[in-house]
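ASSEMBLY PREDICTION REQUEST
Request ID: AP-0331
Submitted by: J.K., bench scientist
Number of chains: three
Total residues: 442
Priority: normal
Notes: Please return the full assembly, not individual chains.
Input sequences:
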Amino acid sequence: MIIATLLTMIAVITVVIVRERNLFAVVVLFGIYSFLMATVLVALDAVDVAMTEASVGAGISTILFLSALHLSKGIEMKPLHRPFLPLIVALATGAALAYGTLDLPAFSDPRAAIHQHVAKRYVDEAARETGVPNIVTAVLASYRGYDTLGEVTVVFTAGIGVIALLRRMRPRKRGEGS
Amino acid sequence: MTVAGHYSYWITIVIAMAGLYIVIARGNLVKKLVGLAIFQTSVYLLYIAPGKLIGGTAPIVAEGFAVYSNPLPHVLILTAIVVGVATLALGLALVVRIKEAYGSIEEDEILGQDPAPPGRTP
Amino acid sequence: MKGYLVLRVVAKLMIAFMVVFALYVQFHGDFGPGGGFQAGVITAAAIVFYAIIFGLPAARAVVPDWLVEAMVAAGVLLYAGVGFAGLVLGGNYLDYFVLAADPVEGQHRGIFWIELGVLITVAGVMLKIFYMFASRDEERSR
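STATUS: Completed
Returned structure:
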């Protein structure tokens, strides 16, 4: 099935990113990973999310990474030193999570709990109550408008945070705190 | 419990653990941020994969379709993606400032330049 | 990069299409995939594309710093303002059904204005972040 193939490709790309040491290659591989993730999201019927992931992940993130790489002028990572403990931690956490997923409902089970209750009401009532055919936009903008207000505020905060961090350096004596 | 039924969860765990491994095992700051971004996208997959209904369609009401995939995870993950890129931008701005202050983006070089905290032998 | 003729011509064609596509995604977010976030990012990407081909000073002349900083704040204000309009007209904060005589028409109006607010803020923030990263280098080499 196409979803399984794409998921396998994503896992392969992730392992390659772990092992790659050239930072420019890592950024390009991250762009490929983002596009594959957007394709998987389309295959999973999440078209809004796929458009956002493609534009934000493969577009803006790549621009930001390349700008930061250009400014920090680092291209090659240092060779790593025997990371056995992090590997064991990651594998142990992964095994614990995999054990936890045994109880989760199978893929595309219509009787799963997430398809009942709130989501059922949104799917049935959104077009009639809001007049907007796109249920995701209706939920995002109307039913859950507060969350979207919080999200816009977070984006705004990130913007002014970057402005505060990267403001123009004024000529001042060395040794003063910035 | 079948392999086909849980394959998406296991791939999500593989990607999440790869991202976690990059964050805790690699010393380069930009690589750590890439690992963090990979971890975040694996969480998107974790939320959206269970919402898919085979035979359903995208959650846009149209003539001729009766079954729609669950729209609720899409809403949550849309917010999460935008918040994720905001975090990434701030992280990269910090990396740029660290590079200017310490001259390197490798973690052990940066820690080597800082003086040891008072009251503790280095 | 404006010495390369092919890049320049293709950029001039594509930037117009990108801006129109961003507006399409914004206003058809009700009927298909899309909405404020995607449209904001595509708009920012169009101007970043212009800055890459024609240089950062040219992009700064087209979209100056004060405009971008105003956009960053104006979108959030617009969104919060729609909420206050709901308060003023008799409902709770961010109620849309009081914005027009017909409640469904009120929903349309509310969603239109808040998506516009989202577009303005997201485009402004993405563009401002790119401006700050791109101009940091010339600060240091001065």
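REVIEWER COMMENTS: Residues 1-77 of chain A form one domain.
SIGN-OFF: pending second reviewer
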